[in-house]
Design brief:
alpha+beta; 5-stranded antiparallel beta sheet; two-stranded antiparallel ribbon; 14 helices; elongated; 9 strands; Hypothetical protein af1432
Length: about 375
């Protein structure tokens, strides 16, 4: 123990001692916190010989140093994380038969997707709605991820148990297992489906189930949902034309069809969410599954391009308790000129109410979504 003579200037009468005080032999005289009540008492202590442990003085000095400002940590760029899911799914589904641990890896991927939804459901919906720059040859993989995302939102709204939700999500990711590349080819062609393509599409539910069983998938809910996801209650579906359908299969079909309606292809433009929702509600006769999608999306879902009463154009970025009044991030001024600084508006206020959807999407093609949500743009890969 290295000792230093007690500095007179550091002791204040009437205040607690900041350290222990010892004699020359290191024996304790006064404990830390003891109050010296008079100048006379202090003089007697100093005359006797008072010392302090150097390490105690250093420790007190460290405590008195101003706290260093915490490093600013940027929030994770969820758009970058979401974009990676397509490549990850492509690698995972590319050679299913050669992966003895496929079921476990697919389960891990599905849980990661659910975590991304939980980190930002509004961003998940934004990606579903905004597909302006989607590549046709990857259509099958985008579609699988988007449909699985919608299934998470739908199952959560319906308050399904986690295991049941996971079976549905994994079915969405693998329902088109044997035609993923064909889907990309068809999305990019400017002619209707050919007979050979139609036949492959009709066979794919049974083929997907067969392949999944070969690699060890034994979840009956997962497999049944895939086997029946193109069947319809009136018997007009395929491949078997059955009418007694599993609830998960019905949910998967509804999510699959809805996503196909709002996804662009070379042969046709995507339907707006509003039109697709009206068609969905009519086809499902207002059932609980279509209602769940409608409730999750709202009238103006995140990603919707709208005009405000102020004259500004903007993108919906956040749902609120009012389905007709989401939060919108403006990308123009009141005259319709592009602006560098994004402002958020509560469309529940009359001056910023939504007055119309905007159909001309040209100015969105180069708009980084990170700007709207406050993320740093992802670095080039």
């Amino acid at each position: 123990m290295k000792m230093l003579r007690l500095p007179r200037a550091k002791v204040q009468v009437g205040l607690p001692l900041p350290w222990n005080v010892r004699d020359e032999q290191c024996l304790l005289l006064l404990s830390k916190g003891h109050v010296i009540e008079s100048e006379h008492q202090l003089e007697l202590l100093l005359q006797r010989g008072a010392f302090v442990d150097v390490e105690e003085i250093r420790a007190l000095a460290r405590e008195a140093e101003p706290a260093q400002p915490k490093a600013i940590v940027s929030p994770p760029n969820l758009f970058d994380l979401w974009d990676r899911t397509t490549d990850e799914l492509h690698k995972l589904l590319g050679e299913v038969a050669q992966q003895p641990d496929f079921a476990a890896r697919l389960d891990q991927f599905a849980r990661h997707l659910v975590e991304l939804v939980d980190l930002g459901a509004d961003i998940a919906i934004y990606r579903i709605v905004r597909q302006d720059n989607a590549k046709n040859f990857y259509y099958g993989y985008y579609h699988s991820v988007h449909t699985a995302t919608l299934c998470v939102l739908m199952a959560r709204h319906l308050e399904w148990p986690p295991d049941r939700m996971m079976s549905l999500v994994k079915a969405a990711l693998t329902m088109n297992l044997t035609v993923l590349d064909l889907q990309g080819q068809m999305a990019g062609q400017d002619v209707p489906m050919k007979d050979k393509q139609r036949e492959a599409i009709r066979r794919h539910p049974a083929q997907a189930v067969e392949l999944l069983e070969k690699v060890g998938v034994a979840d009956a809910d997962w497999l049944t949902a895939i086997a029946q996801h193109h069947e319809r209650p009136d018997g007009s579906g395929y491949p078997l034309g059955c009418t007694e359908l599993d609830e998960l299969a019905v949910a998967l079909r509804v999510a699959d069809v809805f996503m196909a309606k709002i996804s662009p292809r070379a042969l046709r433009e995507a339907l707006s969410p509003q039109v697709a929702i009206r068609e969905l509600y009519r086809e499902d006769k207002g059932g609980p599954i279509s209602t769940a999608i409608i409730k999750e999306f709202g009238i103006y879902p995140p990603g919707d391009f709208v005009r405000l009463a102020s004259g500004e154009l903007g993108l919906v970025v956040q749902r609120t308790g009012n389905a007709r009044a989401p939060i919108v991030a403006s990308i123009t001024d009141t005259a319709g000129h592009a602006v560098a600084r994004t402002l958020r508006h509560d469309t529940g206020q009359s001056e910023f109410a939504i007055v119309a959807n905007v159909t001309d999407k040209a100015m969105l093609m180069r708009l980084p979504p990170e700007r709207l949500y406050g993320f740093s743009a992802a670095p080039p890969v």
